[in-house]
Amino acid sequence: MNLPKIHSITKKIFVALLGAFLVIFLLFHACANLCILRHDDGAWYSAFCHFMGTNLIVKVFEVVLLGAFLLHILLTLWLWVTNKLARPVGYHQASRTKTHQGSKLQVWTGVLILALLIVHFCDFYFVKLGFVDGKYMVETQELMSDEVNAMQQAAAQYGMTPEAFIEANEQQLEMYAEQIPAEQQAEIKAQLDKLRASLPAANLVAQAEQEGMFSEDHKWIKGINSETNEQLKQAGFELEPDFYNMTREKFHNPIMAILYLIFFVIVWFHMRHAFAALFQTLGLYNYKYGPAIEVLASIYAWFVCLCFAAVVLLVFFGL
Fold first, then answer.
1. Consecutive H or E run containing 10
2. Which residues are CB-contacts of 106 (< 8 A; sequence separation ≥ 6)?
3. How far does CA 122 lie from the centroid of its chain?
4. What is the distance between the alpha carbons of residues 197 and 145, in angstroms, rounded to a whole number?
């Protein structure tokens, strides 16, 4: 097996720098998730997700983050394979070096994190990409066009659904076609076509009023299913994943809650060693500052993972 020749220390430095980038991102992600615990019907968290999903700089950063994650995995596996190839036969006696136990487990905790991360992506990130069904939300203002407002008012006045209102007008036009000039008929048909194009939006607004799908500030309509999402996309509307309600729904499930807690325990083991190993790889670890770095690594790993776990536990217990 021939792999490109790059010095191990070079690969280790790249792994360390990419790991540092990911560790910092985890702190940001954990702190952002705390917004889920606010009892504001997801206003803060939805605003945060909206910004992250629409800002161009953030979208570029998202690609960089995913690339850093994949490169971190690739280089780590490359290091592991080259080390194995360099010594295909193990030592006759167990090594007496003081290698930290976490170093020996890094590859395996990394593999477990990758497996659980795929589950996490299926729960959330793949919903954003449209690969997996989920719940969606849309800004109320985007749906309320002039056509939708007019149809809602007219339908309410006659006690009809928006679809029934359009069908009634189409029947009236067909019934009195001979009495209406062709130019006026074309104009009426064009107006009805506009109304029919906006029908998915009007139906959603009506459904939201009946089922209480509006957010507390009436800014968003939430809990939209995948079928309605597709209809609105075809009508030209842009929807966003409803991460707030999807998260709360996931963490109310005991199996999912336990799975994510296991995930965070594994992340703790991986990050606890990775934080200290970063300083060692970059030549910043010495006997004088080593103990302080170990303490800082523990504090950092505990803080990040407890932030993640707190969201799961508090949502599960309905707080």
1. helix 8-33
2. 76, 270, 273, 274, 277
3. 9
4. 11
Q: What is the rounded distance in angstroms from the CA atom of residue 28 to the CA atom of residue 35?
A: 12
**Whether 114 contacts 73, CB under 8 Å:** yes
Helix, strand, coil shares of the chain, percent, nearest 5, are 75, 5, 20
CATH of 8-87+101-134+247-316, one of 1.20.1300.10, 1.10.10.10, 1.10.260.40, 1.25.40.10: 1.20.1300.10
Please report, in tens digits, the pLDDT of each residue of the chain (319 residues total): 455 566 667 777 777 788 888 888 899 999 999 999 988 888 888 888 888 888 888 888 888 888 888 888 887 777 767 766 665 555 545 554 444 555 667 778 888 888 888 888 888 888 888 788 888 988 888 777 777 777 777 777 777 777 787 788 788 777 877 777 878 878 878 877 777 777 888 888 878 888 888 888 788 888 888 888 888 888 778 888 889 989 998 999 999 999 999 999 999 988 888 887 877 777 777 777 778 888 888 899 999 999 999 999 999 998 7
Report the amino acid identity of residue 247.
Answer: T
DSSP for 147-158?
HHHHHHHHHHHH
Q: What residues contact 215, with CB distance under 8 A and at least 6 apart?
A: 41, 42, 43, 46, 221, 222
Do residues 200 and 235 lie in contact, with contact meaning Cβ atoms separated by under 8 Å? yes
**Which pTM does this prediction carry?**
0.75
Q: Rounded distance, CA 14 to CA 103, Å?
A: 17
Q: Where are the domains of the chain?
A: 8-87+101-134+247-316, 139-240
| CA 317/CA 204 separation, integer angstroms | 32
Angle between helix 56-86 and 43-54 (nearest 10): 80
**Angstrom distance (rounded) from CA 19 to CA 22:** 5
The rounded distance, in Å, linking the Cα atoms of 90 and 92 is: 7
